[in-house]
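Anyone up for a design puzzle?
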């Protein structure tokens, strides 16, 4: 059977499976079932760049045909459902090839009409400005459809948590009770949630999620959103998980409200709980009106009692009716934009939201695309106005500002070094803290020293301490052929599904971790560059040299797409390099690199490395001979850059088996010394051999001569 025939059969099987489940199935159930019935052959199982197999990627793409044909519905939560037209298609096209061909024909018909449909959309609804906003709109749908409409849980369908009972519980402990004076929002909430049911705790987590969802990463990043919601869910007796589709949207955002909505969670949640309480008291007719009429919903939100909190109210109005209400939440920005573009509609009215809708629709039709007032060519038209030029970012509302939380979206300080970290490295706690403070201040350091001093191990331990998790660190190793394209970004050959060769711009480890750091400004990220001195640093860093010294200055990159494509190295990214001085001395590094990095020496003869082996041996109850031998061999090496580090004598299983010390000496240490003395005709075994050193250690050193007793010269 050919791949085309297999794909056609799989496509029809999707609709057949859904026909047996009127309420639909999650995509995660459909795909495994389809491929278990129609397995992939070897070529189909090859992975493509998305991480899917070739057959999975093709099926994901062709199911769009089913949607556009009107046979399949896909919800924002990953649920797939057959339509009546889909059931009829199973009857009309029993042959899988005919079925797939008809789906493709209907897709083509839809595509031919898409320009006309787009024009209609441009003249009637606000188009999402980018994929991030599209993701937010999609993820917000369950909060309206499940929560507001059905009273059902967004995270755990089947639990009626958006109901009066859980809302009354939240009112009693959160709205009607005073805000605890100490602790951050999440910690205080733990205390407030102790007396309520699990349904009320789940509802609170979902309401906090609803509030945070549209806020962009510039204010609160993906990790901080997820961490906050997961912490709230952990307060439940029986916690549930965040739905995948909602969690994916955490990396996106529709607007940057400044600090107000992030730093004032208590009044924001009071407002949202009051909204839900007032909603539940509405009749079904009123609810239908509010969800069907954007202006009625906005007036409902603005009419809620309590703090004015315009940014939060504007967010609530937008998140339910994003097609008609703009995502701009700053009142000051709304008024300035209307003033700048009112000529598009002739004159303004008393309703800024309706005016902005009319302006956006006119501009969409004129430009043929979505309108983002925070980007050119629109931004400069309104940002020059005196009332906004000096204050371009929305600020916390004065009446709701919480001084204890202002700045909470800033980068988190490094965790202080604890005894556990110091013990794991056999280093002094004070020394480690000093290096962490240095890195936090400078942004990048290099650990340098002879081989075996644990530079890479220490770098990774420090990285984990800073980032809190290995998932938020990256490690690369430089070598002579490593390039800017490998490290940051460059064009790489790729093979398409049809087998043709093309080139795509691919991100390297630095660009990947920068993207994560930018989306999560509250958290710290670390890039470890092992053997940093083995690469051609000028070639690898290129224009990035500048950013190591001037973190907040945007620059154009080698592969910048246009004049507006600037790059900044975020302040929450830290670099730790390691450098083996037996390969290359610090003196040979160019001045630009030496100026941009702080250098931390790890040397066998110096603190803190000097005592590492002794501490390690003592910890594991081993004889001190290896430490004495290491000191003896290093005492014979005149060039300090070639002395031997302790890690050679620290086996992974923390013990020396019979003959193991001899093997380490013969196969690890002596070859290093042979390389060091290459061409010098030194008898390595005679000078540095294990037996030689052992004999010398057994012979006591000569007693010092007493100057008083020595004969006069």
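Challenge accepted. My sequence:
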């Amino acid at each position: 059977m050919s791949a085309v025939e297999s794909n056609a059969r799989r496509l029809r099987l999707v609709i057949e499976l859904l026909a047996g489940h009127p309420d639909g199935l999650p995509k995660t159930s459909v795909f495994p079932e389809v491929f278990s019935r129609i397995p992939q052959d070897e070529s189909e199982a090859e992975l493509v760049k998305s991480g899917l197999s070739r057959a999975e990627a093709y099926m994901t793409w062709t199911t769009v045909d089913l949607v556009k044909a009107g046979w399949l519905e896909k919800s924002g939560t990953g649920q797939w459902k057959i339509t009546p037209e889909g059931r009829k298609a199973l009857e009309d096209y029993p042959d899988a090839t005919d079925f797939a061909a008809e789906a493709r024909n209907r897709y083509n018909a839809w595509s031919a009409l898409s320009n006309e449909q787009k024009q209609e959309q441009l003249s009637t609804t606000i188009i999402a400005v980018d994929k991030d906003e599209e993701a937010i709109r999609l993820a917000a749908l369950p909060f309206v459809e499940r929560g507001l409409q059905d009273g059902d849980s967004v995270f755990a369908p089947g639990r009626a948590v958006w109901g009066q009972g859980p809302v009354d519980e939240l009112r009693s402990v959160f709205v009607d009770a005073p805000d605890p004076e100490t602790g951050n929002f999440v910690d205080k909430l733990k205390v407030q949630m102790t007396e309520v049911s699990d349904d009320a705790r789940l509802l609170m987590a979902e309401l906090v999620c609803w509030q945070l969802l549209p806020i962009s990463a510039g204010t609160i990043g993906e990790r901080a959103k997820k961490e906050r919601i997961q912490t709230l869910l952990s307060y439940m007796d029986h916690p549930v998980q965040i739905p995948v589709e909602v969690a994916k949207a955490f990396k996106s955002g529709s607007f940057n409200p400044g600090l107000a909505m992030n730093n004032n969670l208590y009044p924001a949640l009071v407002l949202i709980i009051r909204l839900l309480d007032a909603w539940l008291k509405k009749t079904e007719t009123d609810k239908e009106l509010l969800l069907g009429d954007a202006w009625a919903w906005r007036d409902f939100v603005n009419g809620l009692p309590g703090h004015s909190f315009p940014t939060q109210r504007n967010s609530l109005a937008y998140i339910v009716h994003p097609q008609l209400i703009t995502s701009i939440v700053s009142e000051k920005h709304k008024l300035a934009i209307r003033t700048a573009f009112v000529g598009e509609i002739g004159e303004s009215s008393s309703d800024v939201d309706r005016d902005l809708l009319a302006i956006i629709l006119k501009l969409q039709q004129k430009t043929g695309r979505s309108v983002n007032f925070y980007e050119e060519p629109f931004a400069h038209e309104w940002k020059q106005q005196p009332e906004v030029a000096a204050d371009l970012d929305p600020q916390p509302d004065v009446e709701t500002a919480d001084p204890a939380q202002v700045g909470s979206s800033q980068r988190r300080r490094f965790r202080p070094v604890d005894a556990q970290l110091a013990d794991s490295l056999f280093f002094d706690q004070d020394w480690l803290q000093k290096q962490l403070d240095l890195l936090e201040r400078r942004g990048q350091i290099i650990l340098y020293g002879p081989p075996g001093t644990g530079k890479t191990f220490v770098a990774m331990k420090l990285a984990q301490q800073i980032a809190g998790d290995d998932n938020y660190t990256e490690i690369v190793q430089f070598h002579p052929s490593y390039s800017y394209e490998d490290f940051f970004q460059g064009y790489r050959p790729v093979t398409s599904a049809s087998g043709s060769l093309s080139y795509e711009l691919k991100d390297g480890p630095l660009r990947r971790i920068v993207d994560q750091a930018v989306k999560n400004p509250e958290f710290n990220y670390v890039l470890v560059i092992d053997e940093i001195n083995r690469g051609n640093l000028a070639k690898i860093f290129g224009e990035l040299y500048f950013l190591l010294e001037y973190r907040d200055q945007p620059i154009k990159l080698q592969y910048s797409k246009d004049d507006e494509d600037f790059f900044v190295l975020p302040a929450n990214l830290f670099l730790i390099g390691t450098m083996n001085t037996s390969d290359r001395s610090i003196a040979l590094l160019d001045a630009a690199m030496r100026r941009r990095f702080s250098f931390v020496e790890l040397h066998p003869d110096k603190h803190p490395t000097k005592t590492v082996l002794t501490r390690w041996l003592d910890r594991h109850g081993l004889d001190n001979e290896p430490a004495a031998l290491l000191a003896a061999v290093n005492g014979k090496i005149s060039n300090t850059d070639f002395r031997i580090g302790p890690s050679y004598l620290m086996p992974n299983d923390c013990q020396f088996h019979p003959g193991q010390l001899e093997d380490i000496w013969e196969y690890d240490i002596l070859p290093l010394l042979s390389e060091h003395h290459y061409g010098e005709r030194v008898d390595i075994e005679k000078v540095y051999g294990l037996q030689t050193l052992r004999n010398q250690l057994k012979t006591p050193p000569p007693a010092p001569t007493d100057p008083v007793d020595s004969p006069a010269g």
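A detail worth pointing out: The CA atoms of residues 383 and 391 lie 9 Å apart.
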